[in-house]
Design a protein that fits this description.
The structure is a single chain. The chain has 258 residues and is an alpha+beta fold. The protein has five helices and seven strands. Strands 1-3-4-6-5 form a five-stranded mixed beta sheet, with helices on one face. The longest helix has 86 residues, at 7-92. The radius of gyration is 32 Å and the shape is elongated.
């Protein structure tokens, strides 16, 4: 009689096979459970990270709004109200009309710049190139401004993209005005059917890359993130700063109207 034909041995073989099957099933279920548990933890961690990032962006946005209000209030107080007060005093003591006219002209230019910062005039009905040109020209009374724009005339950029790019540009210009001690600003802009890019540089003092991100740079980061855009700074102490911006854009549509 063969070994496996012995009833007692056959039973042992069956029991052994069942034990192996049970172990395989338990091992498989354990592996699946562990993998699923790890996947859940990974998704939970990713979701938590996303929420934290969105919370951080919201906080940055709110802080940026408050800083923007403070900056506008400071501009009105330091640049407009103080100049109007000087004009009033000079007018009271009989200052020459040419000097008063010159002071009024400077005040009007400063008011126009602040107005552009708050809301570029009719930007919804203008091309992106025209709005950028308008923003840059508002600084010509303070800096030597040179710019070169390459844009397809039949392209229309949606309202949100246009606004975010203009706000990034305004933030950069305000940072230059506040920190760079520059005398000249140069800009090259390319607006094509699937890509928007620009380079903005100044001849100021530059800054150290080890410095932390201030609210202005965080604001730029927030807006670039909304556009899925990439940007970088190139700077050296006393060598000026160059800002490079690039984004793919598939929502530009062809249109004969502006």
């Amino acid at each position: 009689m063969n070994y496996w034909q012995d009833p007692s041995n056959f039973l042992l073989i069956i029991i052994f096979i069942l034990i192996v099957i049970v172990l395989l099933v338990v091992t498989t279920v354990s592996v699946i459970y562990i993998s699923y548990h790890r996947l859940l933890k990974s998704k939970e961690a990713e979701h938590h990270k996303t929420l934290e990032h969105e919370k951080k962006l919201l906080n940055v946005s709110l802080e940026a709004q408050e800083k923007e209000r403070e900056r506008i209030a400071a501009d009105l107080h330091d640049n407009i109200i103080s100049k109007l007060t000087i004009i009033r005093l000079k007018s009271a003591i009989g200052t020459d009309s040419k000097e008063l006219d010159h002071l009024l002209g400077n005040t009007i230019d400063e008011s126009r710049r602040i107005s552009h910062d708050l809301a570029p005039p009719l930007y919804e009905n203008k091309t992106l190139a025209d709005v950028i040109r308008s923003v840059l020209e508002s600084w010509e009374s303070i800096y030597i401004v040179k710019f070169y724009i390459v844009a397809d005339d039949d392209l229309v950029v949606d309202k949100n993209t246009k606004l975010q790019i203009v706000r990034i540009l305004q933030e950069l210009l305000n940072n230059i005005h506040k920190h760079a001690k520059a005398s000249e600003i140069k800009m090259i802009i390319r607006i094509k059917k699937d890509r928007i890019s620009f380079v903005l540089q100044n001849d100021g003092v530059g800054f150290s890359k080890t410095e932390g991100k201030g609210i202005g740079l965080q604001n730029i980061d927030l807006r670039a993130n909304q556009l899925n855009a990439k940007y970088k700074f190139r700077t050296k102490q006393d060598k000026g700063t160059r800002f490079i911006f690039d984004m793919s854009y598939g929502k530009i549509s062809h249109s004969n109207s502006r």
